[in-house]
Amino acid sequence: MLMLGLISLHAQRYLNERHVILKGNILSVLLEDWKTGFPDFFRSYLRVTPATFDALLDAIQDDPVFHNNSDTAEQLAADSQLAVALYRFGHYGNGVSVRKVGLQLGLGFGTVVKSTRQPTEEEKEQAKEWVEEHSCPAWRDGWLMVDGTLVPLYARPAHFGNNWFDRKSNYSLNVQLITTPDLRIIDYGIGLPGSQHNATAWKKTRIPSEFVVLLPNGEWIWADSAYPLQLWLMAPYKA
């Protein structure tokens, strides 16, 4: 009887306290219940901790772009727009398509586009004016900048670990960012190992394969000496 009682007890006991996991509209659950109660769920969707998310939100939420309702009667809140952008940044392939993101987060497809939209012609012109003001009129069409950065990993990856060992003796990721002078991200490349040279990692972004469409009328990008010279990619200080 005692043995049967112990077997029954072990079969039904819980080693950890049980918590009810709120489900429903993913976006609202993410930003409310999961952000405070289940940070591991939050991080699995947005690839950042709640503290990092709040720091990013504090840095951007006062920008006028989040308070302009001219193109929509009810604009999505800044924290929701940031969540949509981070969700797309953290996924790839079909999972990052407008349709899949909209269905996953319970948003209209147009809302997804507006949360991660491309620069307008007005914003492009502002970038060109900044370049002209800080250099010369002949260089105004170089309105974008590209550079890579190494994001350290906390440990050596289990698979092909040596590939992630970079020139600074860290295990890291090579992240490529293409931005305007005011740091608006236009294109990016993520997921490559830290040992990857910038010139190679750069080719994994969208612009090198579609520069004819994305950089019309002689527009081009500023880069440093790690990148190959092209008619649309200029490194001003080659040796």
Automatic annotation (TrEMBL):
GO terms for molecular function: metal ion binding. Residues 146-238 form the DDE Tnp4 domain. Keywords: Metal-binding. Its cofactor is a divalent metal cation. It comes from the Eukaryota. This is DDE Tnp4 domain-containing protein. It comes from Mycena indigotica. The lineage of its organism: Eukaryota, Fungi, Dikarya, Basidiomycota, Agaricomycotina.
